[in-house]
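Progress narrative, work stream C.
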Amino acid sequence: MSAATVAGPPPRLFGASYSVYVRIARLVLAEKGVACEQVPVDVFAPDGPPPDYRQRHPFGRIPAFEHDGFRLYETGAITRYVDEAFAGPALQPAAPRARARMNQLIGIADAYAYPALVWGVYVERVEKPERDMPANEAAIAAALPPARICLAAMAELMGEGPWLAGATLSLADLHLAPMIGYFLKAPEGAAMFAGFPALADWWARLAGRPSLALLAAEE
C-alpha cells in the first residue's frame, strides 16, 4: 500500500515515555520520519491523568494522538494511520498473507506477550526493586511459562525472516520491540531469550536501528 502525505501541522502524541504503547507509536513515527510533539500524560500520577484528558481517551489510557484536528486512541489504530497517512517506507506488507501474519503477531503481543513479558517479569523483577518495592516471586514464576510460549510462537511465525512478518520491517517488529526491550532487562528474560537464536539475531538487527537507539538513549 502506498502512503499518501497528509497535510497539516506535526501530530501530537499524548503519554509518558516509559509506556510500552507510547514507545510503539514513537518507533513508528520515527521509522516514517514524522516529527511529532509528545505531550506528557502520566496515568499513574497520584491523581491520575488530567481531567480533560478523558476527552481524548475516554478510558484514561495512553497513548492518544492528534493530527490536524483528527483524534485517535488505541495504539494499533494510531500506528496504522501513521503508516498510511504519511510518506516514508511502508510498514505493512502488501500481500494478504504477510499482512495477516503481521496482524497475528501484533495480536499475540497485546494479548499474551505484554502481560507476561512486561507486567509479569519486567515490572516485578526490575521496576519494583528500582522503586524499593519487593518483587513478587510467585508472579514472576507464573509469567515465565507463557513468556516462553510467546517467544516460541514468534520464532515459529517468523520463519526465515529476517523480520517477524517476512522480508521487510513491519508494524509487528515495532509493536513487539518495547516489550522485548523491557523483558531483556530482567535476568530471567535475557536468559530465556538467548535460547531462541533466530529471535536474538532479529533483536540485534532491530536494536541497531536509529529509532531504537533514540529510545535507548532516554533510559
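Work stream C, second folded protein:
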Amino acid sequence: MNWISNVVRPKLNSFLNRREVPENLWVKCPETGQMVFHKDLEANLFVIPGSGFHMRMDPMSRLRSIFDGGKWFDVALPQVAADPLKFRDEKRYTDRLKDARAKTGAQDAVKVGYGKLEGLPVTIAVQDFGFMGGSLGMAAGDAVVTGLETAVSRGTPFIMFACGGGMRMQEGILSLMQMPRTTCAVQELREAKLPYIVVLTNPTTGGITASYAMLGDVQIAEPGALICFAGPRVIEQTIREKLPEGFQRAEYLLDHGMVDMVVHRHDMRATLARLCRLLTRAPQPVRETIEPAGEVPALPAAAPPAPASA
C-alpha cells in the first residue's frame, strides 16, 4: 500500500499535470545563434541585444511602438472576394487563407491604423510577413489604397511599413493589378501635398518594391533589411557571378543612393516624428520645463513682528 501511495500515485500525478513549454519561449538569433528570452526580445522591440539583429515584428507590436501611448484607431478595410479564381495547388487557396488567418489573427497581410505620433495625427499601414509571406493580393491592395485615401481625407502624413515577398500568385492578374492601383493612390496623396514615408523592412521584394514601396518622399530602411526585386540567389544563377558582400541589403542600398537613411528600430519613432513635422511644417511639441533637482526656490521674507500691545 505504501508503494502505491508513495511511488505510483506521485508518478501518475506528475505525468497528468505535466505543463507544456511554449515553443516560442526562447528565440535564436539567425546571425550569432544567441538565445534570447521572448519577453526580453519583445521589450527590446524584437532587436537581438547582443548582435543588434532586427527580427520581424507583427503589425500590432509595430503600431504599439509608433503611436503615442500605444493607442490608435483601426481603419475599417473593405471586404473582397475570398477566392476569385478558384485557385488550387497542393491545397485550396481558401484553406491557405484560413490557416493564415488562424495563425496571425488578421484578415489579410496589411493592417491600417490612425492615431497620433508625438501629438501629430498620422495614418500608418503595416505589412505582415507572417500572413502568406506578406504577399500582395486584392485585400492587401485595397488596404494600402484605403490607408492612402484615409490620409488624404484626414489630411495626415502616411507612413508605410513595407514587407513581403511580392504578388500573391493565387490571385493571378488580379494581384498584379494592385501595383498600378496603389501607385495611383500614392499620386493622389502627392497631389494633396501630404508626406508619404516608406519604411523598408526585411524582406521587401518583388512587385511590392516595384510599386508603392519605392515611391516615398523619404525612403527609410531598417538595418540589414533585404530590399530588391529579384533575390540575390536568382541573380547569381542568372549571371553566373559572385555578388558583392551585403548586396541588396539596406546598407548597400544606402551607399548606392537607393534609400535615404538606415534607421535603428529604437530610433524609428523619433525619426518618423521629426520627418512628419518637417514635411508638414508642424510646430514642435511643447515640453514642460522641470526645475533641476536639488534647487529649492527661496522662501518669501518673513513679516516683521507685530508691536506688543500696551
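Residues 87 and 93 are 6 Å apart (CA to CA). No further action is required on this item.
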